[in-house]
UniProtKB/TrEMBL annotation:
GO molecular function (one): 4 iron, 4 sulfur cluster binding
Protein name: GTP 3',8-cyclase
Catalysed reaction equations from the record: GTP + AH2 + S-adenosyl-L-methionine = (8S)-3',8-cyclo-7,8-dihydroguanosine 5'-triphosphate + 5'-deoxyadenosine + L-methionine + A + H(+)
Function: Catalyzes the cyclization of GTP to (8S)-3',8-cyclo-7,8-dihydroguanosine 5'-triphosphate.
Residue ranges constituting the Radical SAM core domain according to the UniProt record: 4-227
Lineage: Bacteria, Bacillati, Bacillota, Clostridia, Lachnospirales
Amino acid sequence: MRDNEGRVIDYLRISITDRCNLRCIYCMPEEGVKNICHEKILSYDEIARICSVLAGHGLKKIKITGGEPLVRKDAIVLIRKLKKVPGITSVTLTTNGVLLEQYYDELIDAGIDSITVSLDTMKRNVYQQITRRDELERVLRGIEKAIRENRVRLKINCVCVADIDTQNVLALLNYAQRADVDIRFIEMMPIGLGRQFSFVSEAVIRKMIEEKYGKLTPYGKTRGNGPCKYYDVPGFIGKVGFISAVSHKFCDTCNRVRLTSDGFLKSCLQYDHGVYLKSLLEQKVSDEILWETMKTAIKQKPKAHHFDEKKTKNEDEIRGMSQIGG
């Protein structure tokens, strides 16, 4: 699969639910968002069919996201289905970690290839401030179980929230220091409620790390499906990575599209470009028609985002990350 810019598209991020058991301040309002009714959510068979058709044209890697994917009933069943799709080489999961301890063994048995936990702080009071929930201990137990079992690669994503105890993010590095865990710092993207927060740049975080631990050395190898740039840190077992969409635009190498829980195939995070597939699936169109529809949307993938521009365009995405897929 190639878009009109010649980029090879082989990675699909699938939001299987817009529901979440947290209310992070940059993702959802305190009262939550209006949930999509179950009838409008893609079934697991529909998701598997979309992936099967795309895999026939070059899709290789799938990321399961939400909302919080583990709050959807039988999410493990979907992972098993996708692992059996010919051509798919990797099925990974991003979770907030609240239910990780409970489902870890089932995820491993289903064949998950890696697990990413989103965690922005190690302080209970800061965690409550960011997530509006008191679930940090459950998240930490899940992470410790994953480290102890060491049956699949574990990554931790941190979105550094400006003006909320920025220095504390360094506490997360203890995981990479003592275990083969990757800590990735993600710049706040101006999507949904994220527009209300200033982003903390890669340069700021790198300076903090190097002042405490020494110079970061580029790792130079791929450690996943996405655009993260990894570094070695003196004395660390794991790596430190940066996903810096605002300060270091990587659109020229973008290899992904997104599928929302209600069936919108979305070609770029910033824009609302794409096509709804749910109605086509309900009409039981042929795989050929389904592919041609998806191919058109993929080809028209925008050349680049413009997160660095303050003005909002009419075609900008208005949905939040919980509705798009984190």
